[in-house]
Design brief:
Order of helices and strands of chain B: HHHHHHHH
Strand content of chain A: under 5%
Structural class of chain A: mainly alpha
Largest sheet of chain A: none
Number of strands of chain B: 0
Oligomer: heterodimer
Mean pLDDT of chain A: 80
Shape of chain A: flat
Low-confidence stretches of chain A: 72-80
Radius of gyration of chain B: 19 Å
Distance between the termini of chain B: 48 Å
Number of strands of chain A: 0
Shape of chain B: globular
Number of helices of chain B: 8
Low-confidence stretches of chain B: none
């Protein structure tokens, strides 16, 4: 297997891939810079950031796909 | 009776689901190789790749429990990225924006590519086709097992989950002898993406000092949170 293929397994989309490590690093820096930050802030930050990023990425991809619909139609829709 | 911690049970389930869909995709090609070029080549190629991957897992796996916080943060981030990739694709498929993976079509395509020329003895092309697909899908299985096991030292439950999936898919293949087209692959992929995202979020948080409410029991809660977000995304994108 080519190294590029292995790397691609971890990369969802360049912008999303860049966001995740930056967000975790930002959360870590915030926890160091603000030692009196409430305990609940860090878990909320870690949960909300990637979900918001995925939300943005999915909607951006959907808008792009609607502009250039694929030739292959799905057999059925819905989860599964 | 063995009682698993939440992260161990989650690792076993995530590894089982992910491995099941990956092995299913490999089975389709192996069946097509067997039907067109003979079972000896199909099974020989698949077995060689399986032995290679099992060797890699056996050597690298037990060392995957990395206690140092920076390494756990890296694993958390990689697991989260891995999960986001799965979940993003599954959401777009569930919303009908990209085509679902079609096992029947993959089977027909492989059969057409290989043709019906049977060679006496070992057939290099057929061997390589079966070897390559099992190695490719299996590498993803190894990465998933490593990802879900490494952060919490759950190598054994994750490996057993993957092994269970392998046995289930092989039994299905032996029994049915045709590609599995009725299995809800995308729902399973969505589940895997949700669990990988939950694991990645949890471990990245643990590594940077986040205090998760309920300790390891935050994992199921994170899974519910990611599942809810995924369903909301499917609904809003489909609209």
């Amino acid at each position: 297997m080519k190294p590029r293929k292995i790397i691609s397994l971890f990369i969802p989309e360049p912008a999303l891939a860049a966001f995740v490590p930056l967000w975790v690093a930002a959360a870590w820096l915030a926890s160091r810079a603000l030692p009196h930050m409430p305990e609940s802030v860090l878990p909320i930050m870690l949960g909300a950031g990637p979900i918001a990023a995925l939300w943005w990425s999915v909607h951006r991809a959907a808008a792009s796909l609607r502009r250039q619909p694929q030739e292959v139609a799905p057999r059925h829709t819905g989860v599964g | 009776m063995i009682i698993l911690a939440p992260h161990e049970a989650g690792a076993a389930l995530a590894a089982f689901l992910a491995s099941f869909v990956e092995f299913l995709e490999a089975l389709t090609v192996v069946l097509a190789v067997g039907a067109t070029r003979g079972w000896r080549n199909a099974l020989g190629g698949a077995a060689a790749a399986t032995v290679l991957l099992a060797g890699v897992l056996a050597i690298a796996g037990p060392r995957a429990a990395l206690p140092a916080a920076p390494l756990r943060a890296v694993i958390g981030v990689l697991t989260l990225m891995f999960g986001l990739r799965w979940l993003r694709k599954a959401v777009l498929r569930a919303a009908g924006l990209i085509a679902l993976h079609d096992e029947a079509e993959a089977y027909a395509r492989t059969r057409a590519r290989l043709g019906g020329k049977r060679v006496a003895g070992w057939d290099g092309v057929a061997l390589a086709a079966a070897f390559q697909v099992v190695l490719m899908e299996g590498t993803e299985v190894v990465l998933i097992v490593a990802a879900v096991a490494a952060g919490g030292g759950a190598f054994l439950p994750a490996s057993l989950g993957a092994l269970g999936a392998l046995v289930a898919v092989v039994l299905l293949g032996v029994t049915l002898h045709r590609p599995m087209t009725r299995i809800p692959e995308n729902a399973m992929k969505c589940g895997v993406g949700i669990m990988l995202c939950a694991f990645g979020t949890f471990w990245a948080g643990e590594a940077i000092g986040a205090q998760w409410p309920g300790g390891a029991w935050a994992l199921p809660l994170l899974s519910v949170l990611w599942a809810g977000a995924a369903l909301a995304m499917i609904q809003t994108v489909r609209a």
